[in-house]
Please model this.
Amino acid sequence: MKIAILVILLFAQLPCWAHEGHDKAFANKDAMVATDRKVHITAEGQQAIGLRAEPVTRKRLQTTLEITGKVEPADNRINFVTSPVAGVISKIDVQQGTNVRKGQVLATLHSAEVATVVTELLDQRTSIQADITKARVQAQNDVQLQTKDIQHAETDVEREQKLLDAGITARKNYIEAVHTLDLAKARLEGTRRQLTQNIAALEARRASITEATKRRLAILGVPKNQIDKALSEGQVLAEVPILSPATGTIFSRDVTQGESVDTSRKLLSIVNLSPIWISLDIHPDQLSRVRLGQEVRIQNPVGPEITGTISSIASVVQESERTVHVRVVASNPKGILKPEMFVTASIITGKQAIETVVVPAGAVIADGGKQFVYVKYGDDFQPVLVKTGTHIRGYVEILDGLYEGDQVVVNGASQLRSQSMLSEKEAESSEPKFEARPTEEVIKTKNTTDPLFIGIAVVGGIFLGLFFSWLSSRLKRHNNAKSSMPKVGSHE
Model:
């Protein structure tokens, strides 16, 4: 009985010997290494291609929420270009993506309205000039006649003066001659003054008409220098340049050469790419980690990391996507981020950094939905699948697949990948074939697995020995009892 109780207690203790991850020890298929694509490169070859490996280390990283975002132009940084007058597009000087400056010619428009206005102005100016010329000629004729009248009057005054001095004529005649001379001089002065006034009035009228027409042409989009040139040369102007209202980049072009347009038609849009907006869609269950003013780091696929802040969080859930729209405003001084570009946004959600295993971002290679790195063993390099986490400031968090101290290729991994694919003898698949590489959990589990099986074997042996001993004892007692029974029909 005591032995049976001992056996039961031994079996009851078996689960306590097992490691917590025992049943999962070999379940992690991602912790593998590609032995059939191992690349061997001599030290000279490594130096030639700039191959460099660094040990896997631990760094303190802030906890983040990674979301795929879409770059959008800021609404208040978009300028729409329209034509100031109806006409036909005769020339377009820009394309989508062209960088432009304020005042730059974007397109040219042929406008019949502008041509009509300029023609009317030229005709009016010509008419006024004709009136000025006519007034000058008329005044010149009057001056000639009045000058002769003055000469005759002066002659009469001289004659009457002599007669008066000789006592031949009366003083009355002399006074009348002087008065006639004064009237002639006054008429001449009046004619000259009238000519000046008439010409001034005509010139004022011409200037007034010209300025009014210039203002009208300016409203129609005709530059002042072109108006002045047309007036000075007397040429009809019909071409109107369409100028850029701001400095930026052509975001859209919605017109073609030869197309008729009016003043309501949007021809082009110009966007200033700094600052830029990044649109994020956050699931409601993640919304508690997001707040206004939070720092967001934008991983740019074509340039350095860009930092922004959350400027708005929508108050409603989008019905179609069941997500909440969040807007990030980020500086973009060199215009690296372009509208419609997809980026990875890391929202800094943790105030305190955590220590974790990381490798430089350039060490991780993507292949068929998986990610791996090359681990250096002497002059051999083996691809090892890894599970990645946070991407931040040029580093990638490694959740599984590497151990601290592993020598990982941080420069030249792409060349190793190419060499591995070229040296592969079997071309059936472009994916690497992997064999199991135990993780830290597996290693820890092995240390507890061997004693476990030994314990099971020992206990099992004891149990079987006890069982057979008990069975033998039972059979022996049974035989003894049978032999001691009296035979039927016998009498003593």
User: Anything to note?
Assistant: Residues 277 and 329 are 5 Å apart (CA to CA). Residues 112-166 form the longest helix (55 residues). The first strand starts at residue 32 and ends at 33.
